[in-house]
């Protein structure tokens, strides 16, 4: 082992030095900057993989500074560099990307990469390594494609390798160092699916609650199926949004830890999972009704437009988010075939607009605390808080006013045995919404206020008491 310690160390890029695949990220960047280029990609690929990589790299201009590098491997490489070891970056990625990475890290003595004529992978990479350093070298890689190089190396460094690949390497080559992959894949996938965000889709049950139709099993079954249809489709859009926003998420103080932004989950698996979930969600929605399927397709259209375009416009993004919340309520009405009052829709627009502004303000407060002025990928500045604060609070109070008018409406007086109890709900709304805004001002708000409400004891107790008051107003008769 000691004989190999100063042998030149050859380091792979994709999946090794960085956990992501720079070619796939470059393709995503091309599609974001030139949406029509998605139709050109197959034509570029017909010219060969090397030419394809060159064309994508030249078009994308990948931002290598924000790539998720493997920190423990970097520390090891820096230590070896201080010992006088020669470090070479050898990758199948295009040479422009490899050079940019090397310049950013300021660590490598030489860089080997693909060009428009040669795809530096497998046997081609091994030949390039031998020409650069000779036959005595140590190789750091991650995949099955690296097995021929490991077999020719004096020693191996295993990074994120599967058990099968690691076993094969150990049978033929001494292992100098190993950097294991994270094993809790289930937890990572649950985070990527954002199962906690399924709570938003409980709004589908709101029409059943306001109509007090939970005893109708057919309506309840339709609402439950609708809930899962929206949840599956929402998880697909969340993953699609995360894959689309890789660069901006990596510049966000919290979002950079998301599974795809941190490259803990591979991009291609994420795309496959998103497509599968979307298809399953559409099938479930069709089994509810064709009208409900139409609502889900409308939801997907709006969320896709939001991801690709609308989220970059100040205030437009929060307005769209509030409408998406309201759309869930309308979808619940369609699924269960119950009427939704105009009071409920007006209330939902105001309250969800306020909650959407809570989310934006909480992000700006965090940026302000870190000494930054602007968001990455959104048209918001910390100076906007002086406008967003009163706008969000006034929207919250408007929702309370609408609820107060609803209490006095004739339809409410006819539906509830004792509608005056609903004033306790109005008081609860004032307290809860004010609490959210105070927490936001203090920098204690989670990015999503609904997730915060689930975790916050004060919010949970307040919401429970409001639900009890609604049920009491409907069923309890007071002389």
3D architecture notes:
The protein is of the alpha/beta class. Helix content is 61%, strand content 6%. It contains 21 helices and 6 strands. The protein has helices spanning 22-33, 41-46, 49-60, 71-82, 95-105, 123-133, 147-152, 163-172, 185-193, 206-211, 217-244, 246-250, 267-288, 290-308, 316-336, 342-369, 385-408, 410-415, 422-441, 449-455, 457-475; strands at 9-11, 87-94, 110-114, 138-141, 155-159, 175-179. Strands 3-2-1-4-5-6 form a 6-stranded parallel β-sheet, with helices on both faces. Helix 11 (217-244) runs antiparallel to helix 13, helix 13 runs antiparallel to helix 14 and helix 14 (290-308) packs antiparallel against helix 15. It is elongated. The termini are far apart.
Principal-axis shape equals: elongated
Q: Helix fraction?
A: 55-70%
Gyration radius from CA atoms, angstroms: 28 Å
Low-confidence stretches: none
* Euclidean distance between termini CA atoms: 89 Å
Q: Could you tell me the number of beta strands?
A: 6
Mean pLDDT across all residues, rounded?
89
Note the run of SSEs as H and E.
EHHHHEHEHEHEHEHHHHHHHHHHHHH
Fraction of residues in β-strands: 5-15%
Helix vs. strand class: alpha/beta
The helix tally amounts to 21
Topology:
Elements lengths: L8 E3 L10 H12 L7 H6 L2 H12 L10 H12 L4 E8 H11 L4 E5 L8 H11 L4 E4 L5 H6 L2 E5 L3 H10 L2 E5 L5 H9 L12 H6 L5 H28 L1 H5 L16 H22 L1 H19 L7 H21 L5 H28 L15 H24 L1 H6 L6 H20 L7 H7 L1 H19 L4
Helix pairs in contact: 1-3, 11-13, 11-14, 11-15, 13-14, 14-15, 15-16, 16-17, 16-19, 17-19, 19-21, 20-21
């Amino acid at each position: 082992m000691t004989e190999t310690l100063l042998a030149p160390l050859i380091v792979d890029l994709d999946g090794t030095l960085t956990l992501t695949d720079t070619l796939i990220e470059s393709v995503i960047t091309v599609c974001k900057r030139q949406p029509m280029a998605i139709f050109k990609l197959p034509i570029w690929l017909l010219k060969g993989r090397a030419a394809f990589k060159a064309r994508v790299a030249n078009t994308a201009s990948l931002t290598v500074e924000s790539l998720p590098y493997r920190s423990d491997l970097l520390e090891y490489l820096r230590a070896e560099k201080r010992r006088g070891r020669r470090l070479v970056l050898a990758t199948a990625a295009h040479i422009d990307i490899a050079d940019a990475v090397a310049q950013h890290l300021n660590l490598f003595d030489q860089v080997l990469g693909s060009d428009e004529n040669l795809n530096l992978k497998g046997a081609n990479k091994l030949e390039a390594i031998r020409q650069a350093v000779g036959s005595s070298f140590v190789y750091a890689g991650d995949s099955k494609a690296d097995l021929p190089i490991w077999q020719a190396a004096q020693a191996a460094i295993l990074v994120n390798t599967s058990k099968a690949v690691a076993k094969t390497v150990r049978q033929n080559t001494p292992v100098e160092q190993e950097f294991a992959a994270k094993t809790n894949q289930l937890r990572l996938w649950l985070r990527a699916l954002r199962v906690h965000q399924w709570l938003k889709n409980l709004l589908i049950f709101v029409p059943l609650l306001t109509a007090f139709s939970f005893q109708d099993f057919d309506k309840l079954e339709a609402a439950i199926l609708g809930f899962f249809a929206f949840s599956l489709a929402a998880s697909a859009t969340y993953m699609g949004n995360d894959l689309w926003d890789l660069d901006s998420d990596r510049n966000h103080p919290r979002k950079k830890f998301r599974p795809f932004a941190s490259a803990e989950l591979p991009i291609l698996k994420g795309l496959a999972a998103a497509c599968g979930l979307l298809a399953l969600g559409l099938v479930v929605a069709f089994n509810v009704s064709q009208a409900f399927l139409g609502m889900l397709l409308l939801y997907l259209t709006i969320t896709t437009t939001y991801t690709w375009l609308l989220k970059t416009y100040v205030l437009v993004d929060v307005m769209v988010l509030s409408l998406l919340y309201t759309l869930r309520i309308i979808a619940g009405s369609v699924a269960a075939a119950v009427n939704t009052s105009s009071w409920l829709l007006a209330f939902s627009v105001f309250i969800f607009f306020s909650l959407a502004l809570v989310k934006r303000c909480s992000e700006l407060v965090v940026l302000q605390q870190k000494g930054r002025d602007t968001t990455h990928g959104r048209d918001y500045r910390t100076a906007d808080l002086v406008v967003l604060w009163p706008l969000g609070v006034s929207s919250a109070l408007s929702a309370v006013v609408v609820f107060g008018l609803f209490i006095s409406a004739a339809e409410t007086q006819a539906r509830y045995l004792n509608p005056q109890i609903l004033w306790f709900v109005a008081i609860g709304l004032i307290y809860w919404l004010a609490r959210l805004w105070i927490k936001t001002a203090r920098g204690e708000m989670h990015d999503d206020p609904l997730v915060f409400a689930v975790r916050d004891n004060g919010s949970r107790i307040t919401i429970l008491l409001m639900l009890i008051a609604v049920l009491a107003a409907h069923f309890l008769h007071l002389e």
